[in-house]
Amino acid sequence: MTKLLIIAIDGPAGSGKSTTAKALARRLAYNYLDTGALYRAMAWKMLMEEIDLNRASDVEQCCESLEIRLSLLGKATEVFVDGADVTPFLRRPEVTKAASVISALPCVRKKLLSIQRTIGEKGGIVAEGRDIGTVVFPGAEFKFFLDADISVRGNRRYQDLESAGVSSDPETTTKTVSARDLKDSSRLCAPLKRADDATLIDSTLLSAEEVVELMFQQIAPAIAPQ
After folding, report:
1. pLDDT tens sequence across 28-49
2. Calpha distance 98→100 (Å, rounded)
3. Is the pLDDT of residue 1 over 60?
4. How far is CA 199 from CA 9, 85, 146, 194, 218, in A?
5. Domains in the chain, ordered, with CATH?
6. What span, in angstroms and rounded, lies between the C-alpha atoms of 221 and 199?
7. Which residue, 5, 30, 120, 165, is the most exposed by fewest CB within 10 angstroms?
8. How far is the CA of 42 from the CAs of 15, 93, 181, 188, in angstroms?
């Protein structure tokens, strides 16, 4: 029987993590885990309860009482908070901004780390985020770190926002992405960085299909029938 693997994909905003992770999961017939959705779900709940995100004690109390459940449907991740499906609300700009704030807090990361590891304990999963290969699944059989030029990543994020009906402009979006890079890489708790054993893929000049193919070529020998 072929072992079910854990595939970890990390990288900064706009590097193509979500798109390639979904496509790779579909190709492998694995589940796709959008770890960012967990942080967004927690942020959504805190916004709904009007919690001051700068008050660590209030955030920690919310973490303790919050119930988050994920439904992995192949290439999709549905998120339920206290029994309610909040998936449609997770890409709103205010939720994204709040998620960036709370993601640096140890109490938040501790709460979500346990959830993520429980989901991945049986393998057969492609997980993407910013600390998957370094913190969440350090023992993952395959690790990839995606990156791209900042101008390319900014434009990709701008196009994502436009597709979602969110008004923006390329210059402003690129500045926002650059600021997020600095925040993610400099935080004390689980900073964004490439795992020592992760394969670096520069997606600047590559299509999503080409990135997936590069990943699959590395993984294929490990999933081939023995």
Report:
1. 999 999 888 899 999 999 999 9
2. 5
3. no
4. 9, 35, 8, 9, 10
5. 6-214 (3.40.50.300)
6. 16
7. 165
8. 23, 14, 21, 20
